[in-house]
Specification:
With 104 residues, this protein is mainly alpha-helical. It has four helices and no strands. The chain has helices at residues 12-23, 28-35, 39-52, 65-95.
Length: 104
């Protein structure tokens, strides 16, 4: 049977240090080779840090602050839609006497 290779993970501090080495003037290839990482990973980390600043590299299973807020708002919106639909049904039920079984 073929063994599955476990994907390497690097913590936030490691990524920040790797990017710092490149920012200090070392080449991406040199830093990647010395740290034993793929050059594309290092390029990706630099781009993430440039785009996200202090929110870069939030960690496994964690979202950036704006993504977390968006997720919370989506949940809240779904809840409000459900409440609205329940109220619409109740309004329809109580505004039509035949549906209530009064026979009027």
């Amino acid at each position: 049977m073929e063994e599955r290779r476990k994907r390497k993970t690097y913590d936030r501090q490691f990524k920040l240090e790797a990017v710092r080495l490149v920012e200090e003037g070392r080449s991406v290839a040199s830093v990647a080779r010395d740290l034993g990482i793929n050059e594309n990973s290092l390029h990706h980390w630099r781009k993430q840090l440039s785009n996200d600043g202090k929110d870069a590299f939030p960690g496994h299973g964690k979202l950036k602050a704006d993504e977390e807020e968006l997720r919370r708002l989506d949940r809240e919106l779904e809840e409000v839609k459900t409440e609205r639909d329940i109220l619409k049904k109740a309004l329809g039920y109580f505004s039509n006497p035949r549906k209530r079984g009064t026979g009027l």
